[in-house]
């Protein structure tokens, strides 16, 4: 991992706390040093059981989690965190093991970084995920799209979008079915918000990665991260996830939310 890469400071008034869990001391040391230098507080753990313990004690804003750890692997840690929290999780996976990435995403991870990686790449992923999961800003609809109305009056009032039994509160970043809240991770909500605010407009997987995960247009990435998040959203929002009526597949393009009148 390169040590001479340029550091970019985090724009934040209050320091955000990151838990780095990895059984390799060299990786923990490098990431702790680099993340502190750009403005984060950092706590570390060297195995899965310690990661859960440190998470419960310190309440971090984001977790960077290696998949292969002793005592409890990254999957087990992800399950434990997702039992009580929707905070963002970035998993670290081996270069050739696609199944590791897919399993981690299916369990609730928000993004992944492939080993070996540069610290600058991880810093960028951390910054992008935190910005998306904590930001309260409403995504501006694309011009000419079938954007959902957010003006007062009618079915959709300011900050509230209603479609069937689903109510989306963009100000509080919460989703309800009737009066029951549906728990979404921050990245799940940002993905849903993009599609809903541009209902009826199809987005390719690469476009979704750019809008929601902030991947550069020329970044070569496994777009299944989008497919897994779409699957997770459907399992939470659709009456029948195998026959979706809200989040639709646009054949030959990608995904779209049903047009909201």
Q: What is the CATH architecture term of the largest domain?
A: 3-Layer(aba) Sandwich
What's the total helix number?
Answer: 8
Distance between the termini: 51 Å
Main structural class = alpha/beta
Question: Biggest β-sheet, characterized?
Answer: 5 strands, parallel
Total number of strands: 12
Any idea how many domains?
2
Defining traits:
261 residues; disordered N terminus; Arc Repressor Mutant, subunit A
Walk me through the topology:
Blueprint: E1 17-21, H1 25-37, E2 41-45, H2 48-58, E3 62-66, H3 74-84, E4 89-93, H4 98-106, E5 111-114, H5 119-134, E6 160-163, E7 166-169, E8 174-177, E9 180-182, H6 186-197, E10 203-204, H7 205-213, H8 224-237, E11 247-250, E12 254-257
Parallel strand pairs: 1-2, 1-3, 3-4, 4-5
Antiparallel strand pairs: 6-7, 7-8, 8-9, 10-12, 11-12
Please tell me about this protein's structure.
- This protein is of the alpha/beta class.
- It has two domains: 17-134, 3-Layer(aba) Sandwich (Rossmann fold), CATH 3.40.50; 160-257, Winged helix-like DNA-binding domain superfamily/Winged helix DNA-binding domain (Arc Repressor Mutant, subunit A, Orthogonal Bundle), CATH 1.10.10.
- 36% of the residues lie in helices and 19% in strands.
- It contains eight helices and twelve strands.
- The protein has helices at 25-37, 48-58, 74-84, 98-106, 119-134, 186-197, 205-213, 224-237; strands at 17-21, 41-45, 62-66, 89-93, 111-114, 160-163, 166-169, 174-177, 180-182, 203-204, 247-250, 254-257.
- The strands form three sheets. It has a five-stranded parallel β-sheet with strand order 2-1-3-4-5, with helices on both faces.
- Strand 3 (62-66), helix 3 and strand 4 form a beta-alpha-beta unit.
- The longest helix is centred in the middle third of the chain and has 16 residues, at 119-134.
- Residues 1-5 and 135-155 have low confidence and may be disordered.
């Amino acid at each position: 991992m390169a040590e001479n890469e340029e550091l970019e400071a985090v724009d934040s008034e209050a320091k955000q706390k990151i838990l780095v869990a990895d059984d390799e001391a060299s990786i923990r040391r490098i990431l702790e040093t680099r993340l502190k230098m750009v403005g984060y507080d950092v706590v570390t753990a060297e195995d899965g059981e310690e990661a859960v313990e440190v998470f419960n004690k310190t309440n971090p804003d984001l977790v960077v989690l290696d998949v292969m750890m002793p005592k409890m692997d990254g999957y087990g840690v992800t399950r434990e965190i997702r039992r009580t929290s929707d905070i963002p999780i970035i998993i670290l996976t081996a270069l050739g093991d696609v199944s590791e990435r897919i399993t981690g995403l299916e369990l609730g991870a928000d993004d992944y970084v492939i080993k070996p990686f540069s610290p600058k790449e991880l810093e960028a992923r951390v910054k992008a995920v935190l910005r998306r999961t904590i930001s309260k800003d409403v995504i501006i609809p694309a011009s000419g799209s079938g954007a959902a109305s957010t003006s007062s009056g009618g079915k959709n009032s300011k900050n509230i979008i209603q479609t069937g039994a689903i109510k989306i509160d963009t100000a509080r970043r919460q989703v309800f079915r009737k009066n029951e809240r549906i728990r979404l991770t921050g990245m799940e909500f940002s993905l849903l918000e993009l599609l809903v605010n541009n209902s009826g407009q199809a987005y390719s997987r690469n476009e979704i990665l750019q809008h929601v995960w902030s991947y550069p247009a020329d970044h070569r990435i496994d777009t299944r991260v989008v497919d897994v998040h779409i699957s997770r959203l459907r399992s939470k929002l659709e009456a029948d996830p195998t026959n979706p009526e809200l989040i639709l597949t646009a054949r030959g393009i990608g995904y779209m939310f049903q047009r909201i009148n």
